[in-house]
């Protein structure tokens, strides 16, 4: 059987890089869409660059989306591209709506016109639950987003369902809770902590400034979550699934484990800085992933403790060559 072709938007991001690794291991032809940049943005996919194809397109540009699909002729499209940093969505609310919300419609329109047989995955988010209406959250929990990002994702989620129902597209939405890795962007709290812990251990930094230490999240490992995305597109019919571990931890728990991993005491180094507080916080986000466990047989394989350890070790290895001592 000929190998399948997957198009990944957001391939230069955390999830895009793990998904590219995963699909290559399954024998896929992988095409990644990137937007033009004056600098090199391929750091996370450097190891696989010679095994994937890169095409140029932007979620803001309808005709580029159509051209990318016509050129790549994919069987599956994974829409991972977005403005994904929640605080930036307050400073750039309109742009976030354009990328993260309307961008989904642009891809769906391109699919409808170029090849309606394409299977489509939309990266929806637990941020849609925001000021939660029930705990834990399932596929049927009503949304109450608390940031322009969450509002844009809710639009992307519903337009995916609307195109499935209106045009009979194989369009699915994975409602992912937070997932992290050594490839996580440095501005997100987990990576900010693991990077700082490594710097402090290596004598390159003394203090780590954080915002709300009581904030809690359902944190999993990105490598486990891209497997769930793929599984969703291997089914007979499209459906939506919550992807989560079902366990939450506070930012202070992450700090403690991360500093423990290098035999340091977190209270000696962490400074609470109101600068990192948000205009509105989300409440008790914790996912009920029983549907994806039951229907697709998916479950996370990496524990919270293993994740923290993995991230701290990776940052230590990365930074050690730059340490003075
Ligand atoms: P990242 O921020 O690491 O990656 C985002 C990607 O989107 C980058 O490749 C970026 O490209 C690309 N991008 C941004 N704007 C555009 C645009 N206008 N046109 C084309 N590409 C663009 O995110 P993650 O990998 O962590 O997340 C992947 C997706 O999953 C996102 O949609 C995110 O909102 C969603 N999500 C993530 C969760 C998580 O915990 N990680 C949880 C729930 C949902 P560039 O390199 O050029 O900036
Ligand atoms: P989140 O991730 O907003 O959940 O969005 P982030 O890691 O930014 O924040 C998690 C929680 O940590 C608290 N926090 C801090 N956050 C940051 N970034 N920096 C700090 O210094 C800090 N101190 C405390 C925050 O207040 C927050 O409560 C991620 C993104 O990947 C989204 O794209 C995705 O949709 C959701 O996860 C699910």
Characterise this structure.
The mean pLDDT is 97. The termini are far apart. Helix 4 (93-114) runs parallel beside helix 5 and helix 6 (189-201) runs parallel beside helix 8. 39% of the residues lie in helices and 15% in strands. The longest helix is centred in the first third of the chain and has 22 residues, at 93-114. The chain has helices at 14-25, 62-72, 88-91, 93-114, 148-167, 189-201, 222-233, 251-260, 290-296, 304-319; strands at residues 5-9, 29-34, 53-56, 76-79, 119-125, 170-176, 179-180, 208-210, 216-217, 220-221, 241-243, 249-250, 270-272. The strands form four sheets. A seven-stranded parallel beta sheet has the order 3-2-1-4-5-6-11, with helices on both faces. The chain has a two-stranded parallel ribbon with strand order 7-10. The protein folds into two domains: 5-179 and 219-243, NAD(P)-binding Rossmann-like Domain (Rossmann fold, 3-Layer(aba) Sandwich), CATH 3.40.50.720; 186-217 and 248-285 and 303-322, Alpha-Beta Complex (UDP-galactose 4-epimerase, domain 1). It is built from ten helices and 13 strands. With 325 residues, it is α/β, with parallel strands linked by helices. NADPH dihydro-nicotinamide-adenine-dinucleotide phosphate binds next to helix 1 and strand 5.
């Amino acid at each position: 059987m000929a190998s399948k072709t997957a198009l990944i938007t957001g391939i230069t991001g955390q999830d895009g890089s793990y998904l590219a690794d995963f699909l290559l291991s399954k024998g896929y032809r992988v095409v990644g869409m990137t937007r033009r940049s004056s600098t090199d943005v391929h750091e996370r996919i450097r190891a696989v660059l010679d095994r994937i194809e890169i095409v140029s397109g932007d979620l803001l540009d309808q005709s580029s989306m159509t051209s990318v699909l016509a050129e790549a002729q994919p069987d599956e499209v994974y829409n991972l591209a977005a403005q994904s940093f929640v605080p930036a969505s307050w400073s750039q609310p309109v742009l976030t709506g354009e990328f993260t919300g309307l961008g989904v419609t642009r891809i769906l329109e391109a699919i409808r016109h170029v090849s309606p047989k394409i299977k489509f995955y939309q990266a929806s988010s637990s941020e849609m639950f925001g000021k939660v209406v029930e705990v834990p959250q399932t596929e049927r929990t009503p949304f109450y987003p608390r940031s322009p990002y969450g509002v844009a994702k809710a639009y992307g989620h519903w337009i995916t369902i609307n195109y499935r129902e209106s045009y009979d597209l194989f369009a699915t939405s994975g409602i992912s809770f937070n997932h992290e890795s050594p490839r996580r962007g440095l501005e997100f709290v987990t990576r900010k902590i693991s990077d700082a812990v490594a710097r402090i251990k290596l004598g390159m930094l003394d203090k780590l400034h954080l915002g709300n230490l009581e904030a809690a999240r359902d944190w999993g490992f990105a490598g486990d979550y891209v497997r769930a995305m793929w599984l969703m597109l291997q089914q007979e019919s499209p459906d939506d699934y919550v992807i989560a571990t079902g366990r939450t931890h506070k930012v202070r728990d992450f700090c403690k484990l991360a500093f423990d991993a290098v035999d340091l005491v977190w209270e000696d180094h962490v400074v609470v800085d109101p600068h990192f507080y948000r205009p509105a916080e989300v409440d008790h986000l914790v996912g009920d992933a029983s549907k994806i466990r039951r229907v697709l047989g998916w479950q996370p394989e990496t524990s919270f403790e293993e994740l923290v350890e993995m991230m701290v070790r990776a940052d230590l290895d990365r930074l050690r060559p730059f340490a003075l001592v």
